[in-house]
Amino acid sequence: MAHPPFPLQTGLVGPETLPLLLVLAGLGLSLAEAMAPGAHFVVLGVALLAAGLVGLVIGPFATPLVLGLLVFVFGALALYGYREFDLYGGKGEGRTSDSKALKGKIGRVTERVTPTEGEVKLDEGGFNPYYAARSVHGELSVGSEVVVVDPGGGNVVTVEGIGPGEDEIDRELARERARRARERDEREREPEDVERI
């Protein structure tokens, strides 16, 4: 006596239980996605769950062929929705980037930052926005606004304090004014030195 190759043909599991199996598989994949986010199971989990629920509603019309077609249709809709709404980061923001992308990011000091130690929280710092930090010069107190000037390897960033309303252009202008003032002072001293001789 030859045994049928599929469990549905043995009589142990009837075709009416197939929608329930789809619902359970969809719930299992959705739960796996919730436990370990990464969007690997979300599309298939939603497709199986939706096809199983529709199969439970339409009852005797839920043949394996109809359920297979429903899985395909709901899978396509779930994939479109997943890509359109970009649940994991917003139009490319969820992509992994290298440490160079941290340069210029703004953040706040969470632990006092010195040239040898400290911690900052970057506004757009990824999944874990807390980074070990070192200051360019001086100490930065907790709550100070900072900008990343050297991302290093990504684990320890070098930051510089930002004054209220001050950006890179303002800092460069201030350096230029200071340089011109030094030059002017030097020019004014030169005639005095000449007169003494």
From TrEMBL:
<keyword id="KW-1133">Transmembrane helix</keyword>
<dbReference type="GO" id="GO:0005886">
    <property type="term" value="C:plasma membrane"/>
</dbReference>
<keyword id="KW-0472">Membrane</keyword>
<feature type="transmembrane region" description="Helical">
    <location>
        <begin position="39"/>
        <end position="59"/>
    </location>
</feature>
<feature type="transmembrane region" description="Helical">
    <location>
        <begin position="65"/>
        <end position="82"/>
    </location>
</feature>
<feature type="region of interest" description="Disordered">
    <location>
        <begin position="160"/>
        <end position="197"/>
    </location>
</feature>
<keyword id="KW-0812">Transmembrane</keyword>
<dbReference type="InterPro" id="IPR052165">
    <property type="entry name" value="Membrane_assoc_protease"/>
</dbReference>
<dbReference type="InterPro" id="IPR012340">
    <property type="entry name" value="NA-bd_OB-fold"/>
</dbReference>
<feature type="transmembrane region" description="Helical">
    <location>
        <begin position="12"/>
        <end position="32"/>
    </location>
</feature>
<feature type="compositionally biased region" description="Basic and acidic residues">
    <location>
        <begin position="171"/>
        <end position="197"/>
    </location>
</feature>
<protein>
    <submittedName>
        <fullName>NfeD family protein</fullName>
    </submittedName>
</protein>
